[in-house]
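Help: read this over?
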Amino acid sequence: MKNFILGLAVLSTVLMKAQTQIIAHRGYWQSQPPTTENSLTSLENAQKLKIYGSEFDVRMTKDGVLVVNHDEHHGKMEISETNFKQLEELKLSNGEKFPTLKDYLKQGKKDKSLKLIVEIKPAKTKELENELVAKTIKLIKELKLESQSEYISFSLNICKEIKRVEPTFKVQYLNGELSPEQIKKEGLDGMDYHYSVFAKNPTWISEAKALGLITNSWTVNDIAVYEQLKNQGIGFITTNIPDQLKNK
């Protein structure tokens, strides 16, 4: 009996520690030596950490090439208004080539244990957003990465379009204004909100969990904030310091 109780205590401790999983924000780029966010090296660094996943941002060039970049601009060039050939002339700050989504996904495929958290950035029109969704999903299917990929977006249209095209894909909304009940009604799988949203709405994490929704928060770079969210039972944390939080 004592062994049984001890076993339950150990299991409980393991489950509590496994409760909140870590996602690297734009890869692990605040490394030693540091590298560039959303670069292939930042993804490789995240793969070495043995964490849940690595997030990255997808945009589309004027001529329809999918690329990985957070900002609307690459250097002084607006990505959506510039052809890829011109964009790739400017390398990343770490000397790497400007990454296509295809190259990024190929690197991601090298470690099947790391989830690829695909953030599809909003575009100027609904039509462009739908094209971006279609092309992203097509490429992920071509590379057979369906089970390794999850999706997030600030655009509600993008989130709903992913679910329309592929109802089984996991999709979380980023913008922060929808309650757990509203997220559920929209047919999405979860909420991935800035930590300040959960601070203003302290019941949302428990409400979301009760509805079977995924809960995630960004960009958590403060250990005290991480501990607070973890104590509330949040499922995932997206952070620039995955190396520091993964064993907390």
Observations:
- Residues 126 and 228 are 37 Å apart (CA to CA).
- The domain at 21-246 is CATH 3.20.20.190 (TIM Barrel).
- The first strand starts at residue 21 and ends at 24.
- The longest helix spans residues 2-18.
